[in-house]
Amino acid sequence: MNLKDFYYDLPERLIAQTPLENRDSSRLLMLDKNTGEIKHEIFHNIINYLNKGDCLVLNDSRVLPARLLGVREDTGSPMEFLLLNRKEKDIWEVIVRPGKRAKIGRKFVFGNELHAEVIDIINDGNRLVKFEYEGLFESVLDRLGEMPLPPYITEKLQDRERYQTVYSKNNGSAAAPTAGLHFTKDLLKQIEDKGVNIAYVTLHVGLGTFRPVKVDVIEEHKMHSEFYVLDQANADKINNTRKNGGKVVAVGTTSTRTLETIADDTGYLKPSTGWTDIFIYPPYKFKVVDSLITNFHLPESTLLMLVSSLAGRENILNAYNTAIKEEYRFFSFGDAMFIHR
Predict the structure, then answer these.
(1) Which residues pair with 67 in a beta bridge?
(2) CB-based contacts of 117: which residues, under 8 Å, 6+ apart?
(3) DSSP letter (8 states) at residue 157
(4) Which of 80, 232, 252, 279 could bond to 223 as cystine, CB 3.0-4.6 Å?
(5) Which helix (H) or strand (E) covers residue 72, if one does?
(6) Distance CA 161, CA 312 (A)
(7) In a structure prediction context, what are the per-residue pLDDT tens digits for the chain, which is 341 residues long?
(8) What gap in Å lies between CA 207 and CA 224, rounded to an integer?
């Protein structure tokens, strides 16, 4: 398939710059993946479309305040670091800006309490950096770091927790699993009280999720890798749901990629830990996921290709054009879509 097959024209005014005051008050576009039928809802009414015995699968990864602003130690020149992956205790893979200032051996300082030295240059020009500090790295990062908001968000985030899901637990993401931002603790309790199973996976979202597809033939695109975990208890919840005839409802493309990576050809899940670079695009056949709660994704993105695999490219593009006409809010802080059967 060609990249242009996944293009749509989005007015810039529809890119949400700030989260809504109430997480679950966003709009919800309901899309029947089989018929293409569209309905319009409010997100907190999602509970009406989840049935007893279904399983809602959430990604409990927590976003690190991974953007560090500092200076070069010897010249005072400004420098920005974006933490990607922890390679060893104090060694991280980092995106640096401007890269020309970050040669091997160069040293940088952040807030007078965090020091860094570039020890290698690796793939895509990223750096391996060794940090020095007093105390716990997580505490230092919490004081000095900023949320690594996507480049299309230009407004300053007033409350860092609004770029975290209310169930975030395991530190490691460089970007939020944004479909989960719509849930409140009260809504999750109501869903659980209805008899819907709630299972958790962990997938640490990398900044590669924003990397544009640069090839015309999408099959030639190389996906980035992301670290995932699924434990026995949560695997059992999902397997039992399928065994008993319930639907598996993934919250977000990250949960979807995790489940489809781990499942065998029959859709059975075993506890697993590893790295996934799965690329889901039409005509992929899903093994586990029946329905998907997701945000609206960038034109020509791998995430748009994934949702097109579940609902069909024509259904998705029609839904997106409808959302534009109805002036839905798009991307990370935007409205949601429920692709269901």
Answers:
(1) 82, 146
(2) 105, 106, 107, 108, 129, 130, 132
(3) P
(4) 279
(5) strand 67-72
(6) 34
(7) 999 999 999 999 999 999 999 999 999 999 999 999 999 999 999 999 999 999 999 999 999 999 999 999 999 999 999 998 889 989 999 999 998 889 999 999 999 899 999 999 997 789 999 999 999 999 999 999 999 998 899 998 999 999 999 999 999 998 999 999 999 999 999 999 999 999 999 999 987 777 789 999 999 999 988 999 999 999 999 999 999 999 999 999 999 999 999 999 999 999 999 999 999 999 999 999 999 999 999 999 999 999 999 999 999 999 999 999 999 999 999 999 999 98
(8) 9
- Interatomic CA distance for residues 110 and 94, integer angstroms: 14
Residue that has been written with the tokens 């009406």 in this structure: 48
Question: Do 2 and 217 meet the contact criterion of CB atoms below 8 Å apart?
Answer: yes
Six token digits for residue 239: 């397997």
Q: In the structure encoding, which two tokens stand for residue 338, read together?
A: 């429920």
The 3-class SS string of 192-256 reads: HHCCCEEEEEEECCCHHHHCCCCCCEHHHCCCCCEEEEECHHHHHHHHHHHHCCCCEEEECHHHH
pTM of the predicted model as reported, rounded to 2 decimal places? 0.92
Contact 185, 42 (CB under 8 A): no
d(C-alpha 228, C-alpha 77), whole Å: 37
Rounded CA-CA distance 242/284 in Å is 20
